[in-house]
Amino acid sequence: MSASPPAQRKIIHVDMDAFYASVAQRDDPSLRGKPVVVAWRGGRSVVCAASYEARKFGVRSAMPAVRAERLCPDAIFTPPDFTRYRAVSRQVREIFLRHTDLVEPLSLDEAYLDVTTNKTELPTATAVAQCIREQIREELSLTASAGVAPNKFLAKIASDWNKPDGLFVIRPGDIDRVLPPLPVGRLPGVGKVMEGKLAEMGIGSVGDLRLRTAAELEARFGRYGLRLHQLSLGIDHGEVKPDRPTQSISAEDTFERDIPLSELEPHIRRMAEKAWNAARKTPRIGRTVVLKLKTADFQILTRSLTPGRPPESLERFANIAVELRDRVNLPADRLYRLVGVGLGNFCDASELMDTPEQPPLF
């Protein structure tokens, strides 16, 4: 007797709408309906979040705060309150756990849920998603968008479809209709550099990508080429992994032209800002600062430092990353094509204690 085929997965991706800004507007009624920008003022500050009223002016997360102020002169700036955001995030997660124990947080404001079977015995994954959104609205006075699909990749695509305060479902029979028109930039791992490489091949949409064979993509991009082929067909075998702790967060950039070590500081600080903002979305605390460099001849260098106390501010974090540059002992005329900055060695706040400063790991 043959074994029964595995059940079709039912995955929900829930994404809180403009989370930091929405919490600020909820807690201060005078901010409701107004363009709110969550950021510290100052030349080095970047936007953590923007309300939908501010987004109409082009304000976006990770944008320099001074540019946001130029785009929206009437914006109301409010400093981030991560203690508050973490508390609200815990309340949202408690709602998720009423429906399934298979919850994989991605950040304070989004998570995957596997509801192939659910604890509330609702008949469909769509009904579960709708119930979760209603409970978030009624109990927390916030809104969330949700995507329902047979895998994580498609669920994340779906959650962005009807934002804000929306619900979108991609059923197995919808995949060949929904995916082909999408730009390849919507696929996980396709950033500006990869998007440019695909454009050189005449690939601009997922439909274009489908016309290329797996062998052709693998020959050009290695194992990631096979991943691209699968994603273009809507295939993603990744499981929802509950309580996966953050181990490291980083940001990196490949330059348009190779540059010397002496010109790296502004690029290091820019990547530090991106990594710092991403790290603020997790309740865990990173203790090790990492600088990654790739030379023009593709040699990869890594320098790291674990200070006695974790970096308490973006400025401190960026300064350590810049100082790590001084520990690169290559000739001064060596050129570099990539820089990356990251935080590693994450721990829970309850585990944090003073530790002696460690030497570089590499």
UniProtKB/TrEMBL annotation:
<dbReference type="GO" id="GO:0003684">
    <property type="term" value="F:damaged DNA binding"/>
</dbReference>
<dbReference type="GO" id="GO:0006281">
    <property type="term" value="P:DNA repair"/>
</dbReference>
<dbReference type="InterPro" id="IPR043128">
    <property type="entry name" value="Rev_trsase/Diguanyl_cyclase"/>
</dbReference>
<dbReference type="Pfam" id="PF00817">
    <property type="entry name" value="IMS"/>
</dbReference>
<dbReference type="InterPro" id="IPR036775">
    <property type="entry name" value="DNA_pol_Y-fam_lit_finger_sf"/>
</dbReference>
<keyword id="KW-0227">DNA damage</keyword>
<keyword id="KW-0235">DNA replication</keyword>
<comment type="subunit">
    <text>Monomer.</text>
</comment>
<dbReference type="Pfam" id="PF11799">
    <property type="entry name" value="IMS_C"/>
</dbReference>
<feature type="binding site">
    <location>
        <position position="15"/>
    </location>
    <ligand>
        <name>Mg(2+)</name>
    </ligand>
</feature>
<keyword id="KW-0963">Cytoplasm</keyword>
<feature type="domain" description="UmuC">
    <location>
        <begin position="11"/>
        <end position="191"/>
    </location>
</feature>
<feature type="active site">
    <location>
        <position position="110"/>
    </location>
</feature>
<dbReference type="Pfam" id="PF21999">
    <property type="entry name" value="IMS_HHH_1"/>
</dbReference>
<keyword id="KW-0808">Transferase</keyword>
<dbReference type="InterPro" id="IPR001126">
    <property type="entry name" value="UmuC"/>
</dbReference>
<dbReference type="GO" id="GO:0005829">
    <property type="term" value="C:cytosol"/>
</dbReference>
<dbReference type="InterPro" id="IPR050116">
    <property type="entry name" value="DNA_polymerase-Y"/>
</dbReference>
<dbReference type="GO" id="GO:0000287">
    <property type="term" value="F:magnesium ion binding"/>
</dbReference>
<comment type="similarity">
    <text>Belongs to the DNA polymerase type-Y family.</text>
</comment>
<keyword id="KW-0548">Nucleotidyltransferase</keyword>
<dbReference type="GO" id="GO:0009432">
    <property type="term" value="P:SOS response"/>
</dbReference>
<dbReference type="InterPro" id="IPR022880">
    <property type="entry name" value="DNApol_IV"/>
</dbReference>
<keyword id="KW-0239">DNA-directed DNA polymerase</keyword>
<dbReference type="InterPro" id="IPR053848">
    <property type="entry name" value="IMS_HHH_1"/>
</dbReference>
<keyword id="KW-0460">Magnesium</keyword>
<dbReference type="InterPro" id="IPR017961">
    <property type="entry name" value="DNA_pol_Y-fam_little_finger"/>
</dbReference>
<comment type="function">
    <text>Poorly processive, error-prone DNA polymerase involved in untargeted mutagenesis. Copies undamaged DNA at stalled replication forks, which arise in vivo from mismatched or misaligned primer ends. These misaligned primers can be extended by PolIV. Exhibits no 3'-5' exonuclease (proofreading) activity. May be involved in translesional synthesis, in conjunction with the beta clamp from PolIII.</text>
</comment>
<keyword id="KW-0515">Mutator protein</keyword>
<keyword id="KW-0479">Metal-binding</keyword>
<dbReference type="InterPro" id="IPR043502">
    <property type="entry name" value="DNA/RNA_pol_sf"/>
</dbReference>
<protein>
    <recommendedName>
        <fullName>DNA polymerase IV</fullName>
        <ecNumber>2.7.7.7</ecNumber>
    </recommendedName>
</protein>
<dbReference type="GO" id="GO:0003887">
    <property type="term" value="F:DNA-directed DNA polymerase activity"/>
</dbReference>
<keyword id="KW-0234">DNA repair</keyword>
<feature type="binding site">
    <location>
        <position position="109"/>
    </location>
    <ligand>
        <name>Mg(2+)</name>
    </ligand>
</feature>
<dbReference type="GO" id="GO:0006261">
    <property type="term" value="P:DNA-templated DNA replication"/>
</dbReference>
<keyword id="KW-0238">DNA-binding</keyword>
<feature type="site" description="Substrate discrimination">
    <location>
        <position position="20"/>
    </location>
</feature>
<dbReference type="GO" id="GO:0042276">
    <property type="term" value="P:error-prone translesion synthesis"/>
</dbReference>
